Amino acid sequence: MHTPLRALVLAVTSFCVLTTSIESNAQAEQALVTTSGQFLKDFAETNRFRAGNPSGFQIMPESVATPGVFFVRAEGPRTFRQDLWWFDVASGQERRVLTADQLTGSGDETLTPEELARRERARSSSRGIAGYELSKDGSKLLIPLSGRLFVVDVASMLAGKPTIQELKSAHGSPVDARFSPDGTMVACVRGGALWVTRVSDGVERRVSPAAQGDVTFGEAEFVAQEEMDRSQGYWWSPGSDAIAYQRTEVRGVETFTIADPFDPAKPAKTWPYPRAGRKNADVSLWVDDIRGIFDLPETDPKDPLSPLRPKQIAEVEWDRDTYPYMAKVTWSKDAPLCVLVQNRTQTEQVLYRVDTSTGAVTELLTERDPTWINLFAGSPRFLPDGSFLWLTEQAEHDGTTLQRVSPVGDRTDLASNGLAIQSILGFDRATSRVVLSDAAHNPGTAVVAWSLDPSVQGHERLTEPGCFGEGAQVSGTLGEGLGLWVRSVSPARGAPRWEVMKQDTVIGTISTAAEVPPVSPTVEFVSGLTDLKMHAAIIRPKDFDPTRKYAVLDFAYAGPHSNVVHANERSYLLHQWFADQGFIVVCVDGRGTPRRGRTWERAIRHNLIDAALEDHCAALEALCRMYPEMDRSRIGVNGWSFGGYFAAMAVMRRPDVYKAGVAGAPVVDWRDYDTHYTERYMGMPAPADKLTDGVGGNVTGYDASNVLTYAKDLSVPFLLIHGTADDNVYFVHSMKLCDALVRARKDFDFMPLPGQTHGVSRPEWVEAVQSRIAGFFQEHLAEP
Asked: Which DSSP letter does residue 154 get?
């Protein structure tokens, strides 16, 4: 969902001591409540005790006389169906202002395959009003729902009698609908083409050519949505007079198919999916001046070419053979249209400024890295004087540097010393401060402000993460100053809270309808493990007996983009339930995980398993020496997605450490995973003479990182779990592993999840999966 208010969202926590415990305040008689099946049922039905929490905050512009905050929230803790709510600053009260039934006239909701796929990319399981956009002037809301598109007048809605306009169309369901900056038009993709609709009368015109076979317009391709964090495929000009949009051709890209095992007669769904080393979608960028488009006759639906328009489309002209990835496109106030492009191996990227009348580009900066280049949120960020802010890892130190780049490309370092910057959150014009996320307190993150005034030294911390203590999520707007914003605090202990702020003052609190978990996890944090100084979290049973020996469960992810050690007890609710089944649960962040610097993260280059496996085994050895209650002879491993890959590798390669393992939705052969993710870390998978671009392949690394290579070595109990409808890590991965294990005459357990995608969300399946995992470990890691 796009918001013109540029929401800021960041988790903030902290880590700074050797060992710190989060003690539960629960009474003794409550301590074993998680041993019952009721907890797992409640956990599943409440979406991990998160259903009913507010989210999707959008702030009414300061120019509007009625200050307040919109947000979405489910009515209760056991429904995924969300409504729209309003927090009124003047009264300090909140109220529900719109429901899905008011929009559709019924409780029925139908999601198109395209919308379901987009929600899967965003890992969203919400229903009802799952997303919305507030117009820049605060007068209208745009809400997509059940394949339809609604515009709601804000003033009438706040008065209790919402005026609702449906933008109807005969050209297909809307995808990625967004207001123009001036609020007079709505753009969306229908049937693979980009359309604009005039809000005042619902008249629509097609902007792009019509979709033809393998060619579509206005939608981000799979790897952009899944791996580049780019969900948009078109961009409004700041003046609402032009649109830049993506043309995507998937001719020659492999097509993957997902059938419904419950209904063999139902047509299968097919999706283009670029496997590592194979053909990608061909992506280009076009710009169309749409002034006067509503004065033209309606487009002939049978016309496959561009509709008539005042100006010819301009194609943005960069060397797409050298730089095939369109990683970012930005077009905002005070800024030209810019496009950031990368080469196939992501070792080089160029930021261009685009002449929108001709499509010609001017280079603003180029970066090269012998390993890979990370993409940073909020970068570039243009300033009123035409310069822009940029995050880079190209400096001499091991962290990230904030730079200011002049309109002609001259760079000046602003912030780096002592900071581990993750993203640019915004720019406070009133004080000339850049707001940044800083992970220097790994595994926690703080929000800091860095002044562009050279006379001001250092940075100011806007949130204090403490020491495994209180952290915060920050969302809001930075328009001409901090103004009104929402601070979402996720403390190390206790319930989260959502505070409405004016500058640095709390002026109200937004409530939650979420269910309170029956227990608070008991977590001990450890740092300084081994010479690498790894971080770990330990969760013990509520009835922990220090004289006993406990089996140990390594809850692992162990890969890029994700940490498992968090200074927030709510992250460990399921871990506590497993601990209360008679285990000690351990979480470890080793090399390859984020927020520990460039060298740490890039230790996995060309081999995704060796460093991670070495680090986890070393950490477990160290923990077992530190804590005699941990039984070194009874260690299991459990993971999902990359964590599932790690778990499968752990039991096959290190049975001396891991005596049982559960792998959920694992990548098995990286040659079967997508291009942008896999090739960033592994390079190309085949010899140069077998690749279309002639880049030498990392055959040895792909073989060493392939679970199938070690299937013959499985010697401990192993449970494999996978959803049949997974369109991220396709079901083929587990099928290939099953085949290899059967051929090697290996015993293993397999739990297919019919109809489930990569993020299992149906409560009955969540409960069944976790119960099965616990039973598996109880059976195979029992005391001798």
From this structure: H
